[in-house]
Amino acid sequence: MAGGSETQIIINTRIVLQYLQVSSLEQLQELARQGFHPDTMKRNQLFGQFAPQVTRAAEQGSSVARRVCNRAAEQLRLGIELVGSNFAQRNVEVALIGSVICSPYMSGKLTELLMANPIKQYRVVETQLQPVVGAILLAYKELGIPTNKR
Predict the structure, then answer these.
(1) DSSP string, 117-140
(2) Within 10 Å of residue 71's Cβ, how many Cβ atoms?
(3) What is the Rg, in whole angstroms, of the alpha carbon atoms belonging to the chain?
(4) Using one digit for the tens of pLDDT, what is the confidence trace for 13-60?
(5) Which DSSP string do the residues of 76-116 spell out, in sequence order?
(6) Which residues are registered as beta bridge partners of 122?
(7) pLDDT averaged over the chain?
(8) Cα–Cα distance between 53 and 27 in angstroms, integer?
(9) Is a pLDDT exceeding 60 seen at residue 1?
(10) Rounded CA gap, 63 and 43, in Å?
(11) 143 vs 8, 15, 29, 115, 139, CA distance in Å?
(12) What domains appear along the chain, each with residue ranges and CATH number?
């Protein structure tokens, strides 16, 4: 999460070391060489739980954190566009769900990427229901399946 002032770099480095429960950059390098955790699911969980700190650092100007967030936004854009390509309509509504994607940096970057799509017109909308229910209803709407408005 380097980038910004020297003080901020030191603070960000300490946050990473503390989170990964290592006391030096050498230990961090060794942990990285070992793949951080042998179990893929646990490794993904480890990094997923650290995501809010990365998005916060991106918002504060960290160039490394911004690159990480930009890459994640690109992957989300690709997933959204793959799903969106199955809808006949040109206009596709997208609801962003979760604390990381709803952070100002990530939501702004993803919205920017989606708006650049030359084929579909993606529009980010506010969620009005629990995430799972909202996603199902939006999919039904896009597929033309009627729902009870209760």
Answers:
(1) -SS-EEEEE---S-HHHHHHHHHH
(2) 10
(3) 19
(4) 788 888 889 999 999 899 889 999 899 999 989 888 888 888 988 998
(5) HHHHHHHHHTT-SSSEEEEE--STTTTSHHHHHHHHHHHHT
(6) 92
(7) 87
(8) 20
(9) no
(10) 23
(11) 48, 45, 49, 22, 6
(12) 6-143 (3.30.420)
